[in-house]
Specification:
mainly alpha; globular
Length: 253
């Protein structure tokens, strides 16, 4: 018997409520709540910038929902204001968001067993803060019970904090004094999260190379220094890991 739309929605709601009662979901919420302050600060920065642009309130809100990535949103605002060609705007967004390719590759061992549709939904909520928190909780790249629930707990907190703060910035950006320095608070939150992931010589090497590459390539257009930093970090991490593995093999009896 085919279910009506109301019955389907009722079942989906019941399933969502069941997920929120699971221990790993609540653990994800608890782990992500402290980071919500930094996320909100960064979201306010993006929202204020979008609200003061020529996009208009409705288009700015739509952009936040569809793109949901602060760096690329801020990167394309001056391009849109200067009537840059659409292909330049899309290319800029693609370059700035290349890091999500790295994130998705890291998530692959955890969620590969899920149906494609569920993986697509999870990918929409994937973000910088959630990535760091998830890998800190599950450092071993293998599927375990409760990982999806943990992802949802942390992901809904980060996504909700981001969208709410962006909306507040769009609607009330003119009321926030620039001397509050909310952008610096968001940057410090991301820096604290990044530092918490530095647990080995390999991660320290990758972070150092990424920092140097980002500074050295800062003059590149379209924020390509971010792409350069990601590439340098991956290369440094791979080399450091291979050196460690080779050293370990030589020391074995």
């Amino acid at each position: 018997m085919q279910l009506s739309v109301g019955e389907r929605l009722a079942r989906m709601g019941a399933a969502a409520i069941d997920v929120t009662r699971r221990p790993t979901f609540r653990e994800g919420v608890r782990d992500c709540v402290p980071m919500a302050i930094g996320i909100s600060a960064w979201g306010l920065v993006a929202g204020v910038a979008m609200g003061k642009s020529d996009l208009g309130v409705a288009l700015a809100i739509l952009m936040s929902v569809l793109v949901s990535a602060g760096s690329s949103q801020l990167a394309v605002l001056p391009l849109i204001a200067s009537d840059a060609p659409m292909w330049v705007v899309w290319l800029t967004v693609a370059c700035v968001n290349l890091r999500f390719l790295v994130f998705s590759y890291q998530y692959r061992p955890y969620f590969l067993h899920l149906p494609r549709g569920k993986r697509v939904v999870l990918a929409y909520f994937m973000g910088d803060t959630l990535f760091g928190i998830f890998l800190r909780r599950y450092p071993e790249p293998r599927p375990e019970p409760g990982q999806v629930d943990y992802f949802w707990g942390a992901g809904l907190v980060t996504y909700g904090a981001w969208q709410a703060s962006v909306l507040a910035g769009i609607l009330g950006g003119n009321l926030i004094p620039p001397e509050w320095g909310i952008g610096f608070a968001g940057t410090m939150a991301l820096l604290a999260l990044a530092c918490s992931q530095l647990r080995s010589a390999e991660t320290w090497m990758a972070a150092a190379m990424a920092s140097c590459a980002a500074v050295a390539a800062y003059a590149l257009p379209l924020r390509l220094n971010i792409v350069a930093a990601i590439a340098a970090a991956i290369a440094a991490g791979v080399v450091a890991e291979r050196v460690r593995a080779a050293t370990k093999r030589r020391t074995l009896p």
